[in-house]
Design a protein that fits this description.
alpha/beta, Rossmann fold, 12 helices, 42% helix, 10% strand, single chain
Length: 306
């Protein structure tokens, strides 16, 4: 009897160990654009991810976790974020936290304008990306780093005396992407998450309203929250879809119109479909995903959303 009990405990331990080994660790390093400031995404499903700063954040990492779980993938998701910061802050203040373990994958980005003091200048982003990538590489030589190129800020485009005033709303995202393209030469960088360009695509195709200052266009969504700077639930959802497709290689549309998180965040099925389609089209245009047959899950039920 004692032998049977000991064997059962050993077997359970073995299965637990194998499960832990099977999980792919992924760390998100960023700021409010990662943790979901200005929306209910900020604390969404915080219990499903590990916030290394113990601030109760779910954010885009929790959306990624939800998507990966629904797709049958095994990701152990962590995040380390600080509002208003670039990678320089995380390098100066958070390497002790980030360096507690090696990471399989890391998703990270800098300040929304590339440089808080010199908007549009990628010099600091290039330098800090290289330093952070080197640090992560030393923790794990097989680490894959994904850089998230963020979106155009309406507040910096439509208001006078702002860096992108009088330019098309699409221009800031293009400039940000160019900066990340230059930073992507750092060791361990696998690819860029083209989030800003996915936002541009959503606006160009009529899914999203390009100007929140002139009133909402009928039948469109607002990717920004009320400050026209950070994202709404829709904007963070699109960000997470792009990251999910880019990191996993899976067609975001394969999550289906009954995808759980869209339902929980109050989105309609046409809105979920449109945002998944936008993420797919942007990733496919960069050869990051291949079209997959659409597999529509059963209607949302408690067992899918727990």
């Amino acid at each position: 009897m004692k032998f049977t009990s000991a064997f059962s405990v050993s077997l359970a331990f073995l299965f637990t160990t194998l499960h832990a080994v099977a999980e792919t660790s992924i760390l998100f390093i960023g700021n409010s654009f990662t943790y979901g400031w200005g929306s209910s995404t900020r604390h969404y499903r915080a219990h499903t991810v590990t916030d290394l700063n113990h601030e109760g954040v779910g954010g885009v990492p929790a959306l990624f976790k939800s998507f990966s779980d629904q797709a049958g993938l095994d990701y152990d998701v962590y995040l380390e974020t600080r509002s208003g910061s670039g990678l320089d802050f995380h390098l100066a203040e958070k390497l002790g936290v980030i360096g507690r373990r090696p990471w399989d994958k890391v998703v990270m980005h800098g300040y929304s304008t590339l440089d808080a003091n010199n908007p549009g200048d990628p010099t600091e982003l290039i330098a800090t990306t290289a330093k952070m990538a080197e640090f992560l590489y030393k923790l794990n030589p097989d680490v894959e780093v994904y850089l998230t190129a963020t979106w155009s800020r309406a507040d910096l485009t439509y208001q006078q005396d702002r860096p992108w005033f009088n330019q098309p709303i699409y221009q800031m995202a293009k400039d940000i992407r160019e900066g990340y393209d230059k930073a992507a030469s750092a060791p361990a960088v696998k690819a860029i998450n083209p989030v800003g360009e996915a936002w541009n695509r959503a606006m160009k195709t009529g899914i999203a309203d390009p100007n929140p200052y002139d009133g909402a266009d009928p039948n469109t969504i607002d990717l920004w929250t009320y400050d026209h700077y950070h994202a709404s639930n829709y904007g963070y959802y699109l960000e997470a879809l792009v990251v999910f497709g880019n990191v996993t290689g899976l067609d975001p549309r394969s999550l289906g119109e009954n995808e759980c998180s869209g339902y929980e965040l109050g989105m309609s099925r046409p809105q979920v479909n449109a945002l998944q389609q936008t993420a797919f089209e942007q990733l496919a245009s960069e050869s990051r995903v291949n079209p997959a047959p659409l597999v529509l899950p059963e209607p949302v039920a408690s067992q899918r959303c727990n």
